[in-house]
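User: Teach me something about this protein's shape.
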Amino acid sequence: AETLKYFYLLFSPVDLLPLDSIVINTEAHIFPRFQLVRGLTTGWKRKPRDKEGKVIKTEKKALEGGGKQKEISEEQKTVKEEQKKKDEGTASKGVA
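Assistant: First, the predicted structure itself:
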């Protein structure tokens, strides 16, 4: 069926399908092409990279209430651990 669709599209009149407003997938199905609207996002984010372009390993951590996950880079994790140690040291000195 898809071969026949492509054959038809090859030899059909040029104005049969407006190619600036449709997309044809690999199985010759025709889909409308949507215009991007401000405010709509995919939710996809690039992974953080170092200066050499290598992906910085991250650890996924569940957030409270909602079950979504937050990625924490190794650098952020180190900073949090140092802050925790500092806070523990301050708390032990201040307790009398």
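Now, about its shape. Residues 2 and 8 are 10 Å apart (CA to CA). The chain is about 30% helix and 15% strand. If you'd like, I can walk through any region in more detail.
User: That's plenty for now, thanks!
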